[in-house]
Amino acid sequence: MTITTGYIISALLLFGIGMNGLMTCSHQLRKILAVNLMASGVFLILIVTGFGTDGSAIDHVPHAMVLTGIVISVSTTALALTLACRIQQRLNRSADETAEGNDDD
Amino acid sequence: MNGGLTGMKKRKQSMKGKFKRKDWQFATLTSLLIATLVTFLCWAILKEPPGEDLTAEALAPLFVQSGVTSPVTAILLNFRGYDTLLEVMVLFLAGLGIWSQATVDPTNPLVFSSPATHPTKPNFHGPGPELILATLVRILIPLMVLVAGYLTWAGGFQAGGAFQGGALLGGAGILLILAEPQRISTIPPALIRFGIVLGPAIFLLVGVSCFGYGGNFLQYPQPGAGSWLLLIEFGAAISIGITLTTLFVGGRPDPKRLKGTDQP
Amino acid sequence: MNQSGNLLIFILLSSLLPGLIIFSLPEKSHRIRTILNLGGALTKLSLILLMILGIYQGFYYEFRWTLFPGTDLVLNADPLSALFATLSAVLWLLTTIYAIGYLEQSPNRSRFFGYFSLCVSVTVGIALAGNLLTFLIFYEMLTLTTYPLVIHRGTPEAMAAGRVYLCYTLGGGAAFMAGVAWLTALVGPLNFHVDGLLLPVVETHRVSLTLIFILLIGGVGVKAALFPLHGWLPRAMVAPAPVSALLHAVAVVKAGVFGIIRIVHDIYSIDLASQLGLLFPLSLLTSLTILYGSWRALQEDDLKRRLAYSTISQVSYIALGISLAHPLAAMGGLVHLVHQGIMKITLFFCAGNLAETLGIHRISEMNGVARRMPLTMAAFSIGALGMIGLPPLAGFVSKWYLGLGALAADQGWVIVILITSTLLNALYFLPIVHHAWFSSQEHPWPTRKAGKLEAHWMLLLPSLITAFLVLIIGLLANSEMSPMAWARLIMNKESLQ
Amino acid sequence: MTGINFQSGLHILLLSSGAGLPLLFVLFLWWRPCRKTVYALLPLTTLPALLIVLFVPSEVVVEVPWFFMGGRMGIDPIGRAFLFFTALVWCFSTLFGQASLSDDPNRYRFFGYFLVAMAGNFGLILAQDGLGFYLFFAMMSFAAYGLIIHDDTPEALRAGRIYLGLVIIGEVLLFAALLMIAGMAPGLLFSTGQPGTGGALLFVLLFLGFGIKAGALPVHFWLPLAHPVAPTAASAVLSGAMIKAGLLGWLRFYPLGLSNPGDYGEIVIVLGLIAAFYGVVVGLGQREAKTVLAYSSISQMGLMTILTGCAMLTPTYRATIFSVIALYAIHHGLAKSTLFLGTGLLKSSKNQYSQRCWLTAGLIFIALTLAGFPFTSGAMVKTALKNVSGSLAPPWSGILHLLLPLTAVATMVLMVHFFTVMPTGKASSSKRKQWREMLAWGAGLLGVVAGLRLWPEAARFHYGILDSAVLWNGLWPILMGSVIGWLIHRMALRAEKESIFELPPGDIVGVEGYWNQRKIIPWFTSIQQTPPGDTQIFGTPGFISFFSKYQGELGKREKILMRWKVIGILYLTLCLCLIVLFAFY
Amino acid sequence: MIEPASLAPWLIIIPLAGGLLAFLLPSRSVLIGLSATVANGLLALAITFYSINTIPLEYALGGWPPPAGILLRIDGLTLVMLTMTAITGLAISIYAQGYFPARIGSGNGVSRHGPQQDFFWPLWLMLLAGLNGLFLAGDLFNLYVTLEVTALAAVALTALSGKHTSEVAALRYLLVSLLGSLSYLFGTVLLYRACHVLHLATLGALIVSSPVVWSGLALITVGLLLKTALFPMHFWLPPAHVNALTPVSAILSALVIKASFYLIFRFWGDVFMRILPLGGYSLLGGLGAAAVLWGGIQALRQKRLKMLIAYSTVAQLGYLFIALPIIRHDAGPSSRFALVYLIISHAGAKAAMFLAAGNVFLHFGHDRINELAGVKDALPMTSFALAVAGVSLMGLPPSGGFIGKWLLLTASFASGQWWWGIILIAGSLLAVAYIYRVVRHLFTKAPGPSSGKRQVARTMEASSLFLAVLSLVMGIFAPLVSKLIASDAVSLASLLAGVVP
Q: Does ipTM exceed 0.85?
C-alpha cells in the first residue's frame, strides 16, 4: 500500500506544480513545460491505478491509456512549441526593425 | 529554436519591473488554492477502498482471442483499437498542423544552430567536431533502425510496439537532419507526405476491411488477428518516425529550396 | 375536427406568397408587382367572405400544427376573428391601391410592398389565432414586419422613430411573453375556445393571476397605445402615409386592442376578471388614455401627429367598452373596432393626399384647402364628423352602445368621459374642417392641372370609398350584414358558449 | 309591407320624401352640370312636407328597421301642426332666398346647407323615435352653421363659432339624456304610454339641450348674434322654424323621460316668464332691427316655455295645452319669419317709395297680430293662453292671469321700438329680383293672416266674437304698449341716441372677451410644438447615455479578465466550489 | 433494411479518410473535402431517418462487449447534434469553396493563401471526424481522445490565417484547451479509480457518491467549462474566433463550442444526473446568467462586427447553461427539447452571421459597425442573411430561437424558478439592442458610392443566407426533433427513477 501512496502523492505534487507553473508564469515556454509536467503527473496516477494492493499490475487498461495520453501530449506540445517559435520569430523580426529605428527597447 | 527564444528572454527583463508587486499576490493565492486542491485529492484517493476491478475481470478471458500475448498491446490495438486509431490520427493532425504553419529550409544554418555557437562557419561540412557527427551517423543510424524493427516486432509478446519503434526511428531521423541537412532536403515532399499518411491509412484500411470479414469496425477476423496487428504496428511505426522528425523540423519543406534556387 | 383548416392557411398564404415573391422582384417591374399585390388582396378578401359564410352556417374551421406535444399552433375562425380579419382584408385592398398611387416614383418599392403584404398576413394571423401562443408568435412577428415600414424612408428622424418604436414594442413583447409563459406554466395550453381555463387555479394563485393580467395587458397595451405606453405612435408618423394609414390606424393598433379583447373575454372571461377586481382599473386607465389622447391632439399642429393622438384616444374606447364587463358595452367596443378603423383610415388617406399633392403637413397651412381639393376635404369632413360621433355616421353608433352599456353596468361616470372626449374631439377636428371649408387660402399651392382630378385617382378613390363606407355603416347600422349585427352575433355566441 | 294598397304606398313615399327630397336636391346641387335647373326648382322641396300635412293620416307609421338603429317615420297631431308652419316658413324663405341670393357667387353652397337644414327640420318633426329625432336635430343644427357664416364677415365667423360651440354642447347633453332615457324605455318610442324614471339630472339635460336651440334663458346669447349676420332667408328660417325644434324636443321627451314632470313645471314657467320680459328689456337696448326681432323671438319663446311649464304641471290637460302650444308656434313662426323677410326687403328697397309704404303697412299689421290685436291670430292665441292659465292650480293661475297681459304690453313696446329702428333702404336691387321677393313676402303675409283660420284646431277658440269685454281685453294692452313705446322713443330722441341705453348684442356673451384676456381658451387650444417623444420612459437615449458612462469601466473589467493569472484563480475557485457543493449534497 | 447502427462508424471513417487523402493530394484537396462533407451530410441524414424510432442504439467497436471494448452510442440528442454538424458543416464548406479563391484572387498572390486552402480541407475534415466521434462516443476515455482531436484541429485551423494576432490567439486557445482536457483526463482517471469502468451507461448506473467521485466530476466539469468559454473563463474565445479565417470562425463558434457543451449536457443532464448536487446546477445557471448579461453588455461595446458576434456567442452560451437547472427541476421533456432547439438555432444563426460578416469584410476591407451603411446596396443577400440571423438570435418568432426560449420560459415558471425566466427575457432584450446596432445600418441610405473592392461570390452569400433561413424556419421541423428528444426522455426516465427531485 505504501509504494502506491508514495507514487500517488508524488504524482499529485507533480500535477500541482505543473498547474501552478501554467497559471503563474507569463513566459510561453514555461507554460508549455508546465503543461507537460501536469500531463506526466496524471499519467503517473494512471499507471498506479492499474496496480493491485501488493504492487503487482493486475489491470492493463490504464497502461494503454497512458500510452495514448503520452502520444497525445507529445503532439500537442509539438504544436504549441511551433506556435511559440513563430510568434517569437515575428516578435524578434519586428523588435529588430524597431531596434534599427529607435534603440530604447 | 533556442536562438529565437533568447530574444524573448531579452524582452522579458524590461517588463519585469512593472508587474513585480501585483504578481506576488496572484502567485501566492494560486499556489494556496492548488495546495488545498492537492491535499484534498490526496486525502480522497488514499481514503478510497480498492473497488473490485470490473474491466480487468471482463478482459481477462478475452486476452486469448486478442491474437497478441502482451496484455498492453492487446488492449491498445485490439480491445481499445479505436482509441489508438484516433491517437495515431492526433499525431498525424499535429504533423498536419505544423506543416500548415510554416515552411522551413533544413539546410539554413540559422535554423539548427544558434549564431552564438557557430558565428563563423556557414558551411557545416568542414573538418573538426563535425567529423565525429559524420561517423556517428554512419554507425548509429543502421543500428537504430534495426533496434526499432525489433522493438515493433517485440510488441506482440512483451513491452514494445509501434510507438516505441516509431520513437526510435524519429530519433534516427533527427540525427540525420542535424548531420546531413542537404541530403535530407533533397527528399521530395510528396514522399514525406506519403510517409506521414501511411500509418493512419493502413490502420483505417485494416479496420474497414474487417467489415469484409463480417465483423464490426476494427473487429479483426479471429484466427489471424495477430498478423493484422503486426501489419498495423509496422505501418504505424514508420509513419510515427517520419512524423516525429517533421515535428522536430517544425515546418514543411520550402518549395523554393527544392526548385534548385540555392539562396539560403 | 379539422373540417377545412386549410382554408385558414390559404387565407394566410394569399398575402404571404405574393409578399415573398415581391421581395425578389427587381425595382422596375412595376406591373407584376401591382398585379401580385391586387391579386393577393382580392383572393384574401374572397376567401374571408367564404369563411364568413361558413361561420354563418355554423361551420367549424380549425388548423392545428403541434410543435411539441403540449404546445401547438392553432388557427381557427370564430365570429370575433372574422370581424377583425375582414376589416384588415378590406382596408388592405384599399391601402394597397392607395400605396401604389402614393409611392409612384419613390425608391425600393419592392421592399415596401413585400413587408406590406407580410404585415397583413401577420395581422390576419393575429385575428385567426386559436390559442394565446399562436397569438404571441404573430404578435411578435408584427413588430418585425412593421419596423422596416416605419423606417422605410431611411432619414435620420425615421431611424430615431424606428428605434423608439422597437424599444416600446419589443419591451411590450417581452412582458407579454413573460405573462403568457407564466400563465401556460400555471394552467397549460391556453385555448381561446375552452371556457373556465383558469377556474382551477383562481383560489390558489390569486396574486399571480393579477400579476399575469398586468403583464399581459402591459404587453398588449404597448400596441394598443394605452396611456403610459403610447409614446411610439405619434413618433411613428414619419412613416409614409399608407403605412401610417393601414398600420397605425388599423393593423398594429387594432392588434393590441384585439389582444385585450381576447385576454379579457376568452382567457380570463368577464366574471373572473371582475371577480379579481381587474376590470375597473383597466377602465380607469382607458378613460385616462381617452382624455389624454384628445387633450394632446389639441396641441398638435402637425396633421398626422394630431390624427395619431386621436387614434390613441379612439382606440381606448374599444378597451373601455371591453373593460365595462357588460355585453352592450362590449358590443359597442367591438363595433367601434371596425368603425374607428374605417374612419381613421379615411382621415389618414386624406392627410396623405394633402401631403402628396399640395405638400401640406401642418394644420395652419390648411386654410381654404377645400376649394382646391373639394373631394378630399369632403371625405375628411365625413371622417372627422364621424370621429366626433355625429348621429348619422358610424362613430355615433359605437358611442351610443358604449353609453348604453355603461349605464346598464351602472358605471355612470363613463358617460361623462364619453361626453368630455366628444367635446375634445370637436375642439380639435372642427377647426380643421372649418378652416378648410370657410377660410380663404393663405399659402401658395401648386396649380391644378386643367381637366385632371384634384389628385391621382389612386389616392382619391380609396379615401372616397372609405368615407362612403363610414356613411353607409352609420346609416345602415341595423341591417344584418353591418358590423353592428356582427358584433351582436359575437356577443350572443359569447354568452351562449 | 305586403298587401298595402295603393294609398298607404303613397303615404310611405310621401313620408320618406319629406326629409329625403331636400337631400336629393343637395346631391344634384353638388353635381356641377345640372346646378342651374335644380336652383330653379328649389321651392318644390317643401312640397312633400305640405302634402304630408294635408293628406297623410296620423296612424300611418313607416317602419324602416335597417335605417340607422331602426328608423320610424310618422305624423302625429303635434307633428302635423309643427310641420304645417315649418313647411310654410321654409317655402316662403326658399322663394325669398332664391330671389335675393340669385347673384350671390357661392349661393349653391348656401342652398346646400339650406336644404340639409330643411331636411333635418322636417325629419325631426316626422321622426317617431328618439334616435331618429336626435339624428335630424343634429343634422339641422350643424347645417345651420353653414347658413350663419355665409357672408364670411368677422362678426359672422364669431357668431358661427359661438353657435357651433353651443350646438355641440347641446348635442352632448342630449346624447347623455337620450342614453338615460334609452336605459328606461329601450325603443325610445314616443308612443309608449308608461312614464320614464328620470330625475332632476335628466330634466336639466333635456332643458339645456333643447333650450340652446329654443333660446331658453341661460343659453340664448347665440340668437341675437346669429340673426343680424345671417342672410335674411336664413334668419327667417332660423327664428321661424328652427327655434321651434327645441320646443318640440321638450314636448316629445318630457313625458317620455321624466317620472313626474310636475315638480319641474314651476321652474319652467318661472324661466319662461323671465325670458319673456328679459327679451323685451334687452331688445329695447338694441339698435339693429334684426337683433330687436331676435330678442322678440326670445321673449315669444319665453311664452311658449311658460305653456310647456303649464303642460308639465297639469298632465290631465296635456293634450289641450299641447294643441295650444302648437297654435302659438304656428302663429309666431309665420309672423316672425314674415317680419324678418320684410326687414330684409326694406333694406334692399332703396327708392321705391310706394313699395316701402306697402311694406311698412304689412309689417305694422304683423306687429299687431304678434301683440294680440283683436280679430287676428294673435288675439285667438291670447285667449287660448288665458284659458290654459285659468285651468292651472290656484297660485299659478292668479300670477299668470296678471302677467300675461303685461307680456302683451311688453311685446307691443318692443314692436314700437322695432319700427323706430326700422332700416332705411341701403341698397337697391334689380326690379325683377325685387318683384319676386315682394311676392314671397306677400305669401308670408297671407299666411299670417289666413294661417290660423285654415287650421281646424283653431275653431275651438271661438275666434274674435264681437262682445265688448273680449274686444277691450284685446285692445288695452296694445294701446298701453304703443304709448309706452312712443314715450321711450321720445326719451331716446332727446338723448340723440337710437335707444335709451346701449347693450352689446348677445348681452352676456360679451363675457367671452373676459375669457380671452384671461388666456384660458388660448392656453387650452394653444398650438405649440410638442417636445419630440413626449413620454421618454423607454427612450433609448437614456439607456445609451447611462451605458456610455460605464464604457471605460466595463472595458477595464474585461481586460482584467483577459489575464491568465486571474483565470487560473477563477478556475480553481470554481473547482473547489463544486467539490464543496458535492460534499454538502 | 440497413441496420442503422452499422452506419455509425462510417461517420468517422469517411472524414478521416478524406482528411488523409486531402493531405496526400493537396492539389485536389477542395474536391475531396467537398465530397467528404457531402457524404457525411447524407450519412447523417440517413442514420437519423433509419434509426428514428429504434434509438437508443449501441455499436461495439471491435465487437467487444461494453466493459472491455469501446462503444458508439446513438440516441436522440446524438442524432440531432450529428445532423446539425453535418448541415452547418456542409454550408460552411460550400462557403469555404468560394472563399479561398476570392482571397487568392485578391492580388497578393498565391504564395500566402495557396497553402491555406490546401491545409484548410484536411484540418476541417479531421475536425469533423473529431466532432462526429465525440457525439457518438459512449466511452469516457474515448471522449477525451475525440476532445483532443477536435481541440488540436481547431487550434491548427485558427492559426491557419498566418496573422500574428491569430497565432497568439491560437497558442492561448491551445494552452486553455490543454488545461481543460488535462483536468478532464484527471477527472476520468479519478472516476476510473472509483468504478473501474469507462463505459458511460454502466458508469452512470454504478457510480456511488464518494470524495474521489466528487473531485473527479468537479475536475471534469471545470475542464469542460473552460473549453466551453463560460462567463469568467471566456477570455480566449473572442480573439480566437475573430482573428481566424471566416469559415474557421464560423466552424469554431457554431460547432466546436457546442461539442464541449454537449459533453456537459451529457454528464449533467443525463449520465451523472442522479448524484450531481442541486447547488451545482444553480451555480452553473448563475454563471450562465452572468454570461448572458456580461456577453450582451460587452457585445454592445464592440466597434467591430466580428467582435460583436463573438461576444454574442458568449451571451448565447449563457442561455444554454441557464437551461441546466431548469432541466434538472422540470420533469417533462419540454425543457430538454427547448435546450436542443436553442443549440440548433444558435448554430445556424451564428454560422450565418459569421459568414455574412466575412462577406462584408471581404468586400469592404473592414467591418467597423458604424460604417456599414452601404451594405444593403452592395451585398443584398448578405444583408438579408444578417437581418434574418439577427432575428433568430433575438429569439423572435418564427425562429427556432423563439420556440426554445418560449419552452424554457414556461418550464422555468412551471418549475417555480421564475428568476431564470427573467434573465432569459433580459438577455433577449440585450440581444435586441446589439443586433439592432448592426441591422439598423441595413436600412439607412449609403452616404457615398460603395467602394467595395473584392467581388463576393454568389455561392458564399447563398450559403450564409441558407443557414440564416434554416435557423429562421426551424419552427417547422419541431415535430421531427421533438420525436427524437421525446424518445430520449423515455430512456432517461428509467435512469432517473431513483432521482430525488
A: no
C-alpha D474/C-alpha D482 separation (Å) is: 13
**Shortest Cα distance, chain D CAs vs residue E336, angstroms:** 23
Q: Are C315 and C257 in contact (CB under 8 A)?
A: yes
Q: Using a CB cutoff of 8 Å and minimum separation of 24, what contacts does D568-572 make?
A: D568/A19, D568/A22, D568/A23, D568/A24, D568/B26, D568/B30, D569/A23, D569/B26, D569/B29, D569/B30, D569/B33, D570/E232, D570/E233, D571/A23, D571/E179, D571/E222, D571/E226, D571/E233, D572/B30, D572/B33, D572/B34, D572/B37
H-type helices in C262-326, by residue range? 270-275, 279-298, 303-323
Distance from the C290 Cα atom to the nearest Cα atom in chain E, whole angstroms: 30
- Using one digit for the tens of pLDDT, what is the confidence trace for B104-138? 776 665 555 543 344 444 444 545 567 787 888 88
Phi/psi at A27 (5° precision): -85, 135
| Res E82: pLDDT | 92
pLDDT interval class at B171 (50, 70, 90):
very high
Is the per-residue pLDDT at A35 higher than 50? yes
Q: Which residue of E has its CA nearest to C176?
A: E425
Residues in chain B: 264
Mean of pLDDT over chain D: 76
Q: How far, in Å, CA of C329 to CA of C344, rounded?
A: 21
| C-alpha cell, C387 | 370621429
Q: For C172, name the nearest residue in chain E, comparing CA atoms only.
A: E429
Inter-chain CB proximity B34 and D572 less than 8 Å? yes
Domain segments of chain E: what residues?
290-501
Say if C and D touch: at least 3 Cβ pairs within 8 Å: yes
Chain D CB within 8 Å of residue A58 CB: no
Cβ neighbours of D523 (radius 10 Å): 10
B/e letters for C345-374, b = 16+ CB within 10 Å, e = fewer, are: bbbbbbbbbbbbbbebbebebbbbbbebbe
Interface contact flag, D138 C400, Cβ < 8 Å = no
- Give residue A84's pLDDT: 92
pLDDT of residue C110: 85
Question: How far apart, in Å, are the Cα atoms of C236 and each of C124, C309, D7, D530?
Answer: 22, 11, 61, 15
> Measuring CA to CA, how many Å separate E474 from each of C305, E338, E401, E425?
40, 12, 8, 20
Q: Between residues 425 and 454 of chain E, which touch chain D (CB distance below 8 Å)?
A: 433
In sequence order, the 6+-apart residues with CB closer than 8 A to the CB of D274 are: D217, D302
Interface of D with B in 375-414 (CB under 8 A): none
Cα–Cα distance between C471 and A36 in angstroms, integer? 88
Q: Which residues of C touch D131 (CB under 8 A)?
A: 391, 400
pLDDT tens digit sequence for E302-353: 888 999 999 999 999 999 999 999 888 876 778 888 888 899 889 999 999 9
pLDDT tens-digit map of C291-345? 998 888 888 888 888 999 999 998 999 999 888 888 888 888 888 888 888 899 9
Tell me which residue has cell 506544480.
A17
Q: How many CB atoms lie within 10 A of CB D153?
A: 11
Instruction: Provide the CA C258 distance to its chain's centre, in angstroms.
Output: 8
Distance, CA of D399 to CA of B56 (rounded, Å): 128
CA C162-C165-C168 angle, to 5 degrees, is: 150
CA distances from E119 to B253, C226, E17, E156, E177 (A): 14, 61, 15, 9, 22
Q: Do at least 3 CB pairs under 8 Å connect C with A?
A: no
Domain ranges of chain B: 70-258
Are D166 and C394 a contacting pair, CB within 8 Å?
no
- Under a CB-based contact definition with an 8 Å cutoff, are residues E411 and E338 in contact? yes
Q: What is the DSSP letter of E275?
A: T
Q: Which of B43, B47, B82, B209 to mutate to probe the E interface, most E CBs <10 Å?
A: B82
Residue E429 neighbours by CB distance under 10 Å:
16
| Number of domains making up chain A | 1
